[in-house]
Every structure is written in structure tokens, then in C-alpha cells.
Design a protein that fits this description.
Strand content: 35-45%
Oligomer: single chain
Number of helices: 3
Shape: rod-shaped
Length: about 260
């Protein structure tokens, strides 16, 4: 009897060892399958305890019913970074301020300003005579001051000049030499207009060659047009003035004073 009980206990121990070995084998196989398997294959599981209830939205399935995407509201923690106030308004304000500043600077520096042209006077006058034809040849050199008030360079493309005496045009000239004036600078330009006093004004020959008169001044009208260009835009500035010119001899002007050379 005692031998049979010991054999029965021995069989029970062997069967328990076999069950334990089989369970460990199944557990190891399950762990290996879990490692090699895709986690996404596991279904949604909601763990409910004594103080918890099943989610009424998904009913424990982990899926939102189709058609309710625009009706449900998601709750996120207060500490979530998405709830932190963004600096969008600050960035937009800074961008707008920079754009306005750059636009203002561009308008200030690129806005076209007036180009001042001032007539300085007659720099020199050289006289020649044709006694047979009673003609007076008078080459008049004038001086202009051109001021660039812009913040960019301009180009003086041409200068057109005309001289009138007694409402009659006695000389014309056009100069197309391009001259560049740098920003906020002034340049002095000389130009010469050859004139001829003849035909119906031949009586002026006797006046200009009269030896009893020391200075033979005549009044002439000086008309000048200056054409400037910048950024593909052309601008014209005209001047008209009256000057005394000595037709009895060569003259030159120094600092506004006339010196006569016979």
C-alpha cells in the first residue's frame, strides 16, 4: 500500500514537471512570436477597473464611428505644447514693420527730386570780322551749374543752346557728350555757341568796329535746354536769360568780372 502511494506521488510529480515544461515552452514561443510580430496587429484593449467606465464614444473598440469626425472633440492635456501661445502675431507684426520700413527707405532714396540748372554767365567771347561782307563772328562760351539733388547718379545726355539778338536767332548749338553727375553733387559745364551777325543786321558791323567806343556791349538772349536721364527716364530743364556781350574785342570773365583783350 505504501509502495503504491509513493508511485502515485511520483507520477503526479512527473506530470506536473511535464506540464510546467510545456507551459514554459508555450510562453517562450509566445514571447518570440510577440517580438517578431507587428504590434499594430494587436486589437485595442480597454482596461476597466472598479472606478472606470467604458468609453461611450468608441464602446471599447478604439475606433470612432464614421460620420462623427466633425462632431467629436478631442481632449488634450493642458501641458501639451500645442496649447502654448504661438508668436504668430509677433512675427507678422515684425514682418509688416520691416516691409514698411524697407518700402519707406526705397521711396525716400529712389523718389525723383528736382535737378537744378543755374546759368552762371558768359565765360568768354571771341570776335572776328569779315570786312568785305560786313559780318561779325562771335563765339560765346557760357557756364552752367547743374546740381543733382537725388540719391542716385544722373546723366546729362545733351545740351541745346540758342542765342537771339533783336528777336533774331543768330546762333544755335547742340552738344551730345554724356556727363555723369554723382548723387548729391554739382558739376559746372561750359558750352560754346558760334553766332553770326550779318545780313539785315550788317549795320552792327560799324558799331562793333567803331574805334571811338571802348566797350561795344550788345544785349543777347541766351536760351539753353539741358536733358538729363536716370533709370531710363528723361527730364528737360530750360533756362533763358539776357547777357551783355562785347562785340568789339575778345573778352573773358573771371569770377563774374569781364576782362577785355584787344
Amino acid at each position: 500500500m505504501g509502495k503504491s502511494q509513493s508511485q502515485l506521488g511520483k507520477h503526479k510529480d512527473e506530470s506536473q514537471d511535464a506540464l510546467t515544461t510545456a507551459g514554459e515552452y508555450r510562453d517562450s514561443q509566445t514571447e518570440e512570436d510577440g517580438k517578431t510580430g507587428d504590434v499594430s496587429q494587436f486589437p485595442y484593449v480597454e482596461f476597466t477597473g472598479r472606478d472606470s467606465v467604458t468609453c461611450p464614444t468608441c464602446q471599447g473598440t478604439g475606433r470612432i464611428p464614421r460620420g462623427q469626425e466633425n462632431q467629436l472633440v478631442a481632449l488634450i492635456p493642458y501641458s501639451d505644447q500645442r496649447l502654448r501661445p504661438s508668436r504668430t502675431k509677433l512675427y507678422v507684426t515684425i514682418s509688416v514693420a520691416l516691409c514698411l520700413l524697407l518700402s519707406g527707405l526705397a521711396v525716400f532714396f529712389l523718389f525723383p527730386r528736382t535737378i537744378d540748372v543755374s546759368y552762371v554767365g558768359v565765360k568768354s567771347a571771341y570776335v572776328a570780322y569779315d570786312k568785305e561782307k560786313r559780318i561779325v563772328y562771335l563765339n560765346i562760351t557760357n557756364t552752367l551749374n547743374i546740381t543733382n539733388n537725388n540719391y542716385y547718379a544722373i546723366s546729362v545726355t545733351n545740351i541745346t543752346a540758342q542765342v537771339q539778338f533783336s528777336k533774331t536767332v543768330i546762333g544755335k548749338a547742340k552738344f551730345s557728350n554724356s556727363t555723369v553727375i554723382i548723387p548729391l553733387d554739382e558739376k559746372q559745364i561750359d558750352y560754346t555757341v558760334p553766332t553770326t551777325i550779318a545780313d539785315e543786321m550788317s549795320y552792327m558791323f560799324e558799331y562793333c568796329t567803331l574805334s571811338t567806343i571802348k566797350v561795344h556791349n550788345i544785349v543777347v538772349s541766351m536760351q539753353v535746354t539741358v536733358t538729363t536721364s536716370y533709370f531710363g527716364h528723361s527730364e528737360q530743364v530750360s533756362q533763358e536769360m539776357y547777357q551783355y556781350v562785347d562785340c568789339g574785342g575778345n573778352t573773358t570773365s573771371l569770377h563774374g568780372h569781364m576782362q577785355v583783350y584787344q
